[in-house]
Amino acid sequence: MSEVQPESTKKIETVSETKTTAPTVPPPRPSTTPDNTGGVGGFLNSWKFKLGLAVAAILALATGLFIFYYPHNIAMIGLKRWSAESGAQPIDCMMQDTDDNGYVSCSAKLDQKIFPLECGASIFNTGCRVFKEEILRQ
Fold it and tell me: CB–CB of 36/48 below 8 Å?
């Protein structure tokens, strides 16, 4: 009943087992763009904030230059008007009111003589007057 099977002369080859692994996925690289999802960090890195900051800086610079040159420009207007009425040649005015009296020091040339003047530094006072010491000298 029990039957014995004869041994086979065939050689059985064994196949080496190769392990298959899941393909490796490289880790995600950090993003080079800022995270604009919100918060203070996202706001400070946004292009809108940087553009607003640049515009504010340009406006501040323009306002500062306007305030600095305003008295000089108003005094030059007064000097040109005074020179046209008196027949003098305008020379130039100082940049600021140095003695804080509301007038900028200017000078004009009339008959080969230079007159020191004080011209108003406000749009409400655009006239010029002969410098006080010049009146006392004559």
Answer: no
